[in-house]
Amino acid sequence: MDADDDRTMPPIPDSEIAVNWGDFWDWLGVYYSHGEHGVIYQTQGYPDYLIKVVNCDITDDDGMNDKITEFFMDNADKGISGIPKIMSIVRCESEDGINNQLKVKAEEGGASWMEIGSQVLDLEVGDELGIWMMEQVPYIGLTHPRLTRQEMIRRVARAATEITVKTQVILKDLRPPNYGFRNDGSAVIFDPHVFDSPLDFTTIYDSQSAETSRYMNYWRTIKRNAKV
Ligand SMILES: Nc1ncnc2c1ncn2[C@@H]1O[C@H](COP(=O)(O)OP(=O)(O)O)[C@@H](O)[C@H]1O
Ligand SMILES: [Mg+2]
Q1: Based on the structure, what is the number of domains in the chain?
Q2: Computed from CA positions of residues 217, 188, 65, 74, in that sequence, does the dihedral angle turn out positive or negative?
Q3: Relative to the CA of 141, which ligand 1 atom is closest?
Q4: Model confidence pTM above 0.70
Q5: Protein residue closest via CA to atom 11 of ligand 1
Q6: Domain termination site, one of 135, 158, 185
Q7: Which of 107, 135, 163 is the last residue of a domain?
Q8: 13-62, pLDDT tens digit by residue?
Q9: Ligand 2 (single-atom ion) residues, CB below 5 Å
Q10: Could you tell me if 107 and 153 lie in one domain?
Q11: pLDDT tens per residue, range 166-177
């Protein structure tokens, strides 16, 4: 049997380990979805995981792709329930072969590379890519079937507060397409937009009341952003 017949996928690591693009080459499934900044692919052989690809060199939006990649690299192993479980994450320089594979898998999944390749990834050879494999969240936005809207908003606010307390990072852009819920009802912020000026949080002496005021801010933001 030659190597092409071997359909065995490399095992998913059970903790964050150093990987390279080659691992993702094997894992990369077909196109799943995209936002304004990243393209999401399925993971071959693992229906409960997704792979997100972003171009870290895009500088509009404050270099957000770079910040989010760094945020996940720094915090994936801190046991934070409010971010998706990250199985593997890598930064690497894009090359023709990589770009082509991203294109092929996007088109196999029915996406227009004309659209997402140029408008979302805007890839040129040599750009730095951020690529990670993460837990797939079954309910996007405020859609968990067994929770009230009020309770969902409360849980997303609590998740955001937990993230801020454990990472010192303040989040923005807490809109329904950037968070969701696991089956067990826990909230997950899978697109954590990093906000740079945490002054009001880190300089408050009494961390208890800082936490409370941060929670209230998040709660109001989430409620406002979820209005139809
Ligand atoms: N971990 C995830 N689980 C389930 N769906 C996801 C996940 N990450 C992204 N998605 C889907 O892909 C869409 C775009 O993802 P997002 O991370 O917000 O991309 P962008 O950075 O471009 O805004 C989300 O609105 C959601 O529908
Ligand atoms: Mg988003």
Answers
A1: 2
A2: positive
A3: 25
A4: yes
A5: 33
A6: 135
A7: 135
A8: 555 555 677 888 889 999 999 999 999 999 998 899 999 999 999 988 88
A9: 35, 178, 191
A10: no
A11: 998 999 999 999
